[in-house]
Amino acid sequence: MNRIKMIGIDHSKASVAYRELFSFTKTSATAAMETLKGKKGVSGCIILSTCNRMELWVSAEDGLEESLYEMLCQLKEVDPSLYEEYFIQREGMEAVWHLFETSCGLKSKIIGEDQIITQVKDALNLARECFCTDKVLEMLFRTAVTAAKKVKTEVRISHKDTSAIDGAIEGMKRTGYSLAGKTCMVIGNGEMGRLTALAMKQNGADVTVTVRQYRSGQVQIPLGCSRINYGERLDFLKNCDLVVSATASPNFTLKREDVEKAERKERLLMIDLAVPRDIEPSVAELPGVTLYDIDSFELHQENQELNQSMAQADHILEEYVQEFTTWYDCRDLIPVIKGICNNAARDVGLRIHKEVSHLEIGDAEKKKLEKTIDTAASKVVNKLMFDLRENLNMDTWRECVEAIAKIYPMEEP
User: Fold this and answer.
1) What's the confidence (pLDDT) of residue 413?
2) How far is CA 104 from the centre of its chain?
3) Distance between CA 147 and CA 141 in Å, rounded?
4) Looking at the structure, do residues 413 and 282 belong to the same domain, yes or no?
5) 164-174 vs 191-202: helix axis angle to the nearest 10?
6) Angle, CA 107 vertex, CA 105 and CA 110 arms, to 5°
7) How many structural domains is the chain composed of?
8) Where residue 102 sits, what CATH number does that domain have?
9) 290 vs 169, 172, 223, 244, CA distance in Å?
10) Which of 31, 236, 313, 408 is the Cys-Cys partner for 343 at CB 3.0 to 4.6 Å?
11) Is 351 helix (H, G, I), strand (E, B) or coil?
């Protein structure tokens, strides 16, 4: 039986400096998963890498001897004695609950943030593309995403859609900084860049977005925002009161030496929302420059409202966790149960065929009726089998399934 295991580093245990060391781009995540999938004992793996966390998920066979932490350190070519305190490992149901809560934003730095659902789904899709997932992780991640969507639809965790930029804007407001009338440059035209530009515009800033030339025809800039080529960003600094960088680039978008040489205003506020970081940290040492990173801000929510919302979310998640657990515990018996359902339905059909044939209806209606009865019988038996699972311990339930399978055995392929 495969075991679900994960190891993660996130904002609750490590600063952005450590998180970026273990972060993955799409390309590096693909290479890492392909390497891991080739290891003995790894049936499937998925890497979830965001601004605030990096998690490695593995469907582990009994032959897996190497620890996930050792695997990560090998991939990143770092000394394993230096960073273990920043990681947490989970297994089994603890890991399952963690993914479900993470997927709906309950473990995010900004509680209820919306991007994590897409990030979890994208992590699964990337693992699929490089053939690195397996049935266990596939079902786990798909069910977690489905649960998160239901939580998003039915539970009001926050007053509005939230993301890292919302936390930054709220943080700036608390310090008395107003965006109204400010000239803002947003570096990055992905999802985070789009959200940032939109939020800045809605708060009264004059927003210009950088666009890579090779993507200039594909990028949608929020209404009311201007655009410049990415290569013009340093020349544009002289106009800026505020610069926000939010890309998925593995390299700095703004280096210290470039910012130091560039013409700029006496006071310049810079916000780096990327992991790994976009703006070289030593830029903060330049006169007149104030630099914030993604760890600098968080949203403050009412505790009572938040607690009620999280309780509602947990109630929804319980249903989906149970659904996954039932599948996980019973997955080896699913073909047997399917055979029982099909054969039981066929038995019902044979028993009522004579009565149906005597009905004064056309042949097409008779076939439709028989198909409806067949489907209904199969569903009833399936429900009976899994309802028994809820009321019996696993060993007793397995004995029941095996006994019923002797009455309605699977057909030989």
Assistant:
1) 42
2) 8
3) 10
4) no
5) 30
6) 65
7) 3
8) 3.30.460.30
9) 15, 12, 28, 12
10) 408
11) helix
In the 8-state DSSP scheme, what is residue 219? P
| Whole-angstrom distance, CA of residue 23 vs CA of residue 10 | 10
Task: Reply yes or no on whether 341 is catalytic.
Answer: no
The answer as to whether 171 is a domain residue is yes
Please identify which of the residues 51, 225, 240, 341 carries the catalytic annotation: 51
| Torsion from C-alpha of 356, 359, 365, 370, nearest 10 degrees | -10
Longest dimension (CA), the chain: 94
42 and 125 co-located in one domain? yes
pLDDT per 10-residue tile (average), the chain, 413 residues: 88 89 94 95 95 93 88 94 94 94 82 82 95 94 94 73 74 88 92 88 94 66 90 95 92 95 94 92 95 78 66 89 86 81 86 84 87 89 79 81 83 50
The whole-number pLDDT of residue 67 equals 92
User: Torsions phi, psi of 121, nearest 5?
Assistant: -65, -40
Cis omega (within 30 of 0) for bond into 281: no
Judgement on whether residues 127 and 177 belong to the same structural domain of the protein: no
- Give Cα separations from 301 to 157, 180, 317 (angstroms): 9, 24, 22
